[in-house]
Amino acid sequence: MKEWKDMLLSAKIWVKEAGEKQVEKAQGPMEMNSKTSAIDLVTELDVWTEKFLTEKIQQEYPGHVMRTEESGFYEGDSDYEWVIDPIDGTVNYARGLPFFCISIGIRYKGETIAGLIHAPKLNETYEAVKGEGAFLNDRPIKVSETSMLNKAVIGTGFPYDKGTDKDNNLSHVQELVPRVGGIRRLGSAALDLAQVACGRMDGYWELKLKVWDVEAGLLVLEEAGGKTIVSEEDKGLYVMGANPYLFNTLNELIKR
What we know:
By secondary structure, the chain is of the alpha+beta class. It is built from seven helices and 15 strands. The protein has two domains: about 1-140, Fructose-1,6-Bisphosphatase, Chain A, domain 1 (2-Layer Sandwich), CATH 3.30.540; about 150-255, D-Maltodextrin-Binding Protein, domain 2.
């Protein structure tokens, strides 16, 4: 649908401008605070980016609903909803690691119809419109064809309460480490899903995520030929995505 593509195009312009600001600011000192734990950080650029994006949306698409990581829910009278993570991978960003991104998902009547993931330090932009395929820097991408678990590279992550809650993903990692070719923990759920979408990794799972972490990445992965599962649990979302050859095997091993 042309309207969806136009919205995505607007978002691409905005995230590239915001990404330039993030990279520029990362060169010097910045303010940061902790949220739920010492490693659950929010920087001044998380706040600035979210404000920048919400103001752009309000100006160009008045009435659209917005759901954001830092400031919450913006009500509107439209069937469209924007789901925004201003910096997914804030710890990486704060430490100078390049694996962070801006993630925007767009819903229409509750269905995700567009997704955008921009990693400014990597110079990579992943995008998808429902039914139109997935792209990295305007080139089509597809999931891998890896079918043997012992050759697969799988991504994962750990929740912020990993030191206080026994449901911290360690048992799943222990189950999978001997069986897979490799496990990677990169620190950004959105970019993890994007790595599966472009075939660099073969699968990914994580616990206790929020919708803004994965809204865009799930659509990008599905449009790249991957399969996904999302289940709402007590402390957040369980998410798993993989190429179609490994999806069932991973789902059986993780057993959520």
